Amino acid sequence: MKVLIVHAHPEPKSFSSAMCATAADALRSGGHELVVSDLYAQHFNPLASAVDFSERRDANYLNYALEQRHANGAGSVAPDIRAEMDKVLACDLLILNFPIYWFSLPAILKGWIDRVFTSGVFYGGKRVYDRGGMRGRRALVAATLGGREHMFGRGAMHGELNGMLKPLLQGTLGYVGFDVLTPFYAYHVPYLDATERTEILVRWRETLAHLDSRQVLSMPSLEHFDDQFRPLTKTELEFQPVGDIDG
Amino acid sequence: MKVLIVHAHPEPKSFSSAMCATAADALRSGGHELVVSDLYAQHFNPLASAVDFSERRDANYLNYALEQRHANGAGSVAPDIRAEMDKVLACDLLILNFPIYWFSLPAILKGWIDRVFTSGVFYGGKRVYDRGGMRGRRALVAATLGGREHMFGRGAMHGELNGMLKPLLQGTLGYVGFDVLTPFYAYHVPYLDATERTEILVRWRETLAHLDSRQVLSMPSLEHFDDQFRPLTKTELEFQPVGDIDG
Q: What is the distance in angstroms between the Cα of A115 and the nearest Cα belonging to chain B?
């Protein structure tokens, strides 16, 4: 299996970085082919802007998605974006490894998605969800957070954590076609002692050894929607495409 | 009223930029005091990193939130962050005006939140939600998107749009104490003709003229949780803190 880990923590000694190193070791030991994009270490530019396009479809008006599509067609994608795209397109499994900032991604990882998941390759027109460009591949989120597990879930203070990460789990990874595995969360990380941290890393290594039995999150299927993405029938109006993620 | 608009679109001729200009004009005409942070124009750095701290609490291990708290106490917050913090702390109404990228914020605006909503001032310990640092102030999201309105809602392809933006609406703006007004969404923007765009701008101007009657989203209240943020009683376990946002 070809695996790409995208890692996004500014501190190399952080627990998130330890999770990245543990995953790299576990996957290499398991005989898998591994590539790591360490976004802080490689000074990845997270800013979607006009400088991403050396030749413009429309030099007077920047529509970022249309310029992405044009650049893909013209073979003029910026080298730093192209390099990351090629890594993603080559992988069987994408692991996003990051600390949760404000119940979502650190900006450097959000910018990686904004710039790398280009229109025309990862998605476009009707090529979304189970027709997205990455269909047949798997994605796994591995996230650390300061909050405790009891702060999340139905009736809990913040609601479901999968619901907070819905823009990533469904709106991004599911949207471009990945089979999105149930995320691996490490709670309360800044307050754990060494023993507790080791226990999580053991559980993380176990998780990586048994990915085939890990549950895939349910996503909308285009079969249930018409050409305008309207639900097809009254019965399908009852269909709850995001039951596993909301809450 | 003091209003801060934070605007995050790379194209000055975009519809999102027109919404920003319309809001600026409407609010100034209404006698309000206005400040605009145009993040692309001011080349705002979205990257939370060690260089944000001129003197470190712990030079060997970067815990970003703890360094934020230390910098606030020591008065050593980086000048570009301090300038934005001061704008937010002075405002009665914060408007975030942006195009939706991947069902969430453009990275430059996510990084503005990561760096500006500092621990120790905006939140910290039990100072969250209705005890957050920005309680008593209001926040309004004004977002453009390519998707059509029928793609969102219960049973629709992507679920509720407020649910997709929950990390921002509840997990960020609500979390730091803002009264979060019902967002203003401009759907299908790249495909609208000039008349339709004008109609949206008229509706946007109307919205800004009647903010006092705009619904505030429901948020968790600390009254319903104990010191560990556990729901207080069985009755309150049924409490759905995010009923307006999930879906």
A: 10
CA–CA separation, B142 and B100 (whole Å): 10
Whole-number pLDDT of residue B243: 44
Given a contact cutoff of 8 angstroms between Cβ atoms, the answer to whether A35 and A1 are in contact is no
From B16, B3, B183, select the one nearest A63 (Cα to Cα).
B16
Task: Identify any residues that bridge with A181 across adjacent strands, giving them in sequence order.
Answer: A216
In chain A, which residues have pLDDT < 50? 237, 239, 241-244, 247
Q: For residues B18 and B196, what is the distance between their CA atoms, to the nearest angstrom? A: 13
Beta carbons of A154 and A247 less than 8 angstroms apart:
yes
What integer is the mean pLDDT of B61-88? 97
Q: Which of residues 153-212 of A touch B (CB under 8 A)?
A: 154-159, 163-168, 170-172, 175, 190
Is the Cβ pair B62, A159 closer than 8 Å?
no
In chain B, % of residues over pLDDT 90: 93
Q: What residues in B contact A238, CB-CB < 8 Å? A: 155
Query: Token pair for residue B195?
Result: 């008349």
Strand partners, A144: A99, A186
Q: What is the longest distance spanned by two Cα atoms in chain A?
A: 58
- Identify any residues that bridge with B3 across adjacent strands, giving them in sequence order: B34, B93
**Superfamily of the domain at B2-237:** Flavodoxin domain (3.40.50.360)
Mean pLDDT for B217-229 is 94
3-state helix, strand, coil in chain A (%, to 5): 40, 15, 45
Region of poorest pLDDT, from A155-169, A171-185, B33-47, B224-238: B224-238
Per-residue exposure over B54-64, b if at least 16 CB sit within 10 Å of its own CB, e if not: eeebeeeebbb
Q: Per the structure block, which two tokens stand in for A209?
A: 């050894």
- Answer yes or no: CATH 3.40.50.360 is held by domain A2-218: yes
Judging contacts by C-beta atoms under 8 Å, the chain B residues touching residue A49 are 10, 40
- State residue A233's pLDDT score: 74
CA distance linking residue A131 with residue A38, whole number of Å: 29
Q: By the 8 A CB rule, do B87 and B18 touch? A: no
ipTM: 0.94
